[in-house]
Design goal:
heterodimer, A: Rossmann fold, Ubiquitin-like (UB roll), de novo design (two linked rop proteins), 5-stranded mixed β-sheet, 4-stranded parallel β-sheet, about 45% helix, B: alpha+beta, Arc Repressor Mutant, subunit A, Glutaredoxin, 2 domains, 9 helices, 4 strands, about 10% strand
């Protein structure tokens, strides 16, 4: 099992790739030049479709197909989703810090394929220094004639702007992100219409995750066949897995899709802190069901299909490890607190339900719960599921429902013992 | 002492920056500039003043209440003054698994505050915040102050003590800042 450095370092070990000269020396922007001077937008879309690239932000939707859905109206926009806010996710930041030009090149190719002349990079507000850096790189690209009017003497022109978020997880949801660029509250829109038809300023818009875009130059350069040779049939290409929690060596690991949990956790990251027993895994941050660390789960390949077969989601691959000492009711309290804070307030079940779950989980964790509280918690969670405009409502119940199902004793032990931990109500 | 009577507007002070911000969006979509303008205005006092809200609304042809709602919705915007330095510790699940709650408690104890409170000298506010995308480097926090926002990763309570010493302005300097 070996790691790739395709997305984070353009396959070189050394630093320096963040400098334009070095990036160009290593063949950077040849892909962009090729598409602008030799390919039609449709050819680019077909190539990306053929590569099998799927969205790395969480949903795993095929990227080329997304691009092909654009309505036949102009102007069009492309937007990079660099809002990276899922607990346990820290990959887009590393791409933008260490290999910024590959991401920008991907965004530029996406704009060409979409026939958009303006691209926005929506970056979480906490990354403002990074955005300053990126902005200086955008200016460099203008100076080199790769942004601006009539790029490489063609008819194609492109501007890239950055837009800073201001601390709202919900803006990672694409329609909320677009609302936010429009200067409104970051609340999801009712879909359809989808952004491909009515996106930014009601115009056809493509929204792609940062990591997704960083794959695109490689696909243009090396072809769809090469890309498909990495990973497995339906989940191909390299993927950055963000490993956190009780991993001995937490961090980003860039591996082919199809690598197993066991290979990632034990071969690459050296196992669990303090060599304790692994109890459970949250494969997609706070958003997807918890998995028990059984042999079946550990031998599951990290693909969109396989993780879903064992009852969870690969999502953005923000893998949080819980060792044997962790009380899952406490972990659920943590994820619920997050969603309570991040609920945008538009849909009642999510807005009210996350508060209700939070109170119940505090009561349970404070040892003040009674035997009915675990059942009530499950009931409340089930009443949120499937009843909200965006997935955040469902996300908020994932850890709760799966936790109750798999680790029910963790939720009732405080009641039984009558001496639960002393977690303080923080809000 | 405070130059309240001298009305220096954002337009006076940041004319070029305002123009650069507005250029990023289509002319008929000025409202898009509301977030960058709030960030800009917030640099002044560490929070958004009523006059800044009115001026931003005027610049963008929207109602002041619309600007207020944006300030209220987004976590990084502040409607009220806090400490000169906001120490914002991530205590979400991945960080908490690596000791962030105990770390936050220790930082609070060392500064003599509770989470959400500001030190008596008005210099430091300690807050627990949501995920900051640095989960592999917990415990971690960001410091927000007039020079922007800075990440501190793989931290111990002792590291924070050193940082607090560095950041803490002596009472003399503080007087100077206010009168200067």
């Amino acid at each position: 099992m070996s790691e790739f450095l395709l997305l984070r370092h353009r396959n070189i070990g050394e630093e320096g790739i963040a400098e334009l000269d070095e990036y160009l020396r290593l063949g950077g922007f040849q892909a962009f030049r090729k598409v602008v001077t030799q390919m039609s937008p449709q050819q680019v879309i077909d190539l990306v479709k053929a590569s099998g690239l799927r969205g790395r932000g969480g949903a795993g939707f095929p990227t080329g197909i997304k691009w092909s859905f654009l309505s036949d109206r102009f102007p069009r926009y492309v937007v990079a989703n660099s809002d990276e806010s899922e607990p346990g996710t820290f990959k887009d930041r590393e791409i933008m810090e260490r290999n910024p030009f590959q991401f920008l090149e991907g965004l530029m190719i996406c704009a060409y394929a979409s026939q958009a002349h303006v691209a926005y990079n929506y970056c979480r507000g906490e990354f403002w220094q990074l955005v300053d850096e990126l902005q200086s790189k955008v200016i460099q690209l203008h100076d080199h004639g790769m942004l601006g009017d009539r790029i490489f003497g063609s008819e194609f022109s492109l501007q890239i702007h950055h837009h800073l978020g201001a601390g709202a997880y919900i803006c990672g949801e694409e329609s909320a992100l677009l609302e936010s660029i429009e200067g409104k509250l970051g609340q999801p829109r009712l879909k359809p219409p989808f952004p491909a038809d009515r996106g930014l300023y009601q115009q056809p818009t493509v929204v792609n995750n940062t990591e997704t875009l960083a794959n695109v130059p490689l696909i243009i350069e090396r072809g769809a066949e090469w890309y498909r040779s990495i990973g497995v049939e339906k989940s191909c290409g390299p993927k950055i897995m963000c490993l956190s929690g009780h991993a001995k060596n937490p961090g980003n690991y860039e591996v082919p899709l199809g690598t197993t949990f066991r290979e990632l956790i034990f071969d690459l990251a050296d196992g669990i802190t303090g060599d304790k027993r692994l109890k459970a895994i949250l494969p997609s941050g706070a958003s997807a069901p918890i998995l028990p660390a059984t042999d079946v789960v550990l031998d599951t390949p990290l693909t969109y299909e396989d993780v879903s077969l064992v009852g969870s989601q690969l999502g953005s691959a923000s893998i949080i490890l819980l060792d044997e000492t962790v009380d899952v009711s406490w972990a659920a309290m943590k994820t619920t607190r997050f969603f309570k804070h991040e609920s945008c307030g538009k849909c009642t079940p999510c807005r009210e339900g996350t508060y209700w779950m939070d109170r119940l989980l505090h009561r349970i964790n404070n040892g003040q719960g009674d035997h009915e509280d675990a059942n009530l918690l499950g009931e409340v969670a089930k009443q949120i599921t499937g009843k909200c405009l965006c997935p955040l409502g469902d996300f908020s119940t994932s850890a709760v429902i799966s936790g109750l199902e798999l680790f029910h004793d963790d939720f009732t032990q405080h009641v039984r013992n009558g001496n639960g931990s002393t977690v303080e109500l923080s809000e | 002492m405070t130059p309240k009577e001298m009305v220096v507007t954002l337009r006076d002070r940041y004319a070029d920056e305002i123009e650069t911000i507005l250029e990023r969006y289509p002319a008929e979509q000025k409202r898009s500039a509301v977030m960058p303008l709030i960030f800009m205005a917030q640099r002044e006092e560490g929070y958004i003043t009523g006059s800044a809200i009115d001026e931003i609304a005027e610049l963008l042809d929207i109602a002041s209440t619309q600007v207020v709602s944006i300030v209220g919705f987004y976590t990084l915007f502040y409607a009220n003054p806090g400490g000169m330095h906001r120490i914002q510790i991530c205590t979400d699940l991945p960080c908490a698994l690596r000791g962030a709650d105990e770390f936050a408690e220790q930082v609070c104890e060392n500064l003599g505050v509770k989470l959400g409170e500001t030190t008596d000298d008005g210099q430091f506010t300690v807050e627990a915040v949501m995920c900051l995308a640095a989960c592999d480097k917990a415990p971690m926090f960001q410091v927000q102050n007039s020079s922007g926002l800075t990440y501190y990763e793989c931290q111990s309570a002792d590291d924070v003590n050193v940082l607090v010493k560095e950041l803490r302005t002596s009472p003399d300097d503080l007087d100077e800042t206010v009168s200067g």
